[in-house]
Amino acid sequence: MKPSTILRSDALDILFENRNKQYGAYALRRNYPRHLYYGLGGMILLVILSILISRNSGPGPNLNGGIVSIFTIPDTLEPIPPPAEPTPPPPPTPAEPPRVAQEKHTTIIVVPDKLSEPIPEQTRIDSAAIGPVSLTGTKDDGITGPSPAAGSSTGPAAPIPPPAEKEPEILETASVMPSFPGGAGALQRWLSRQLRPQDEQDSGERIRVVVRFVVNDEGEIDQVQLSQPAGDPYDREVLRVIKKMPRWEPGQQKGRPVSVWFTIPVIFVTPEQ
């Protein structure tokens, strides 16, 4: 570099004198201050936008010209009895096994002719089993054995049905009731954001839907039922939102997690115009 240009050159030009300035290092060092200012400015603008958005956000969306979905939990709820369980049908009566023909075993005793019993013919004895009484039936196959006498308790026992599996117990109330993550306030905010307003609702009309479901011992939602339906599309919307709920904190009874019924009333309200 000539002495006359040294005073007019900056440190970067002096450092890269007689070097390849087309290489990336020279361009990066030359544009570094400008890139730094752009990065700081963008970060400051992003922080300001996030603050403005958080201030303007409300408790829930207001869509379709002011139609609002409001969720309420009253302090006391009337207990709703669980649906009656169907009575199981009686077990089928076991079929009576076929009776095998048999001939009465007669002990030969010498008595007067008028008191003796006739001895069965040999052909009948060959095709029947020997038993205490004479019975008519199928031909003896040598396996089934003699049929029990009338009034006798002997014979094949009726099959014992397998014990019914005990269904898990679902409580109506528990010492510690299930809770939505974050409490009732978080549940109300979550439902207000998830429920979609309906176009069929008139101005100033209040639609109430009561939904009942089970929070099992793992906090999952199960057996969703409508205790007080309001008709489509409100019932369908409430069922859709309840079934997509996150996992709850399960209820407890005697220090262990249990399955508990939980009831929620949901009210759709349209502001009067």
UniProtKB/TrEMBL annotation:
Residues 145-157 have a biased composition (Low complexity). Residues 79-97 have a biased composition (Pro residues). It comes from the Bacteria. The chain crosses the membrane at residues 36-54. InterPro entries: TonB-dependent_transducer (IPR051045), TonB/TolA_C (IPR006260), TonB_C (IPR037682). Residues 77-103, 129-162 are annotated as: Disordered. SUPFAM superfamilies: TolA/TonB C-terminal domain. Residues 197-269 form the TonB C-terminal domain. It is found in: Cell inner membrane. Keywords: Cell inner membrane, Cell membrane, Membrane, Protein transport, Transmembrane, Transmembrane helix, Transport. Its main location: membrane. It is a single-pass membrane protein. Belongs to the TonB family. This is TonB C-terminal domain-containing protein.
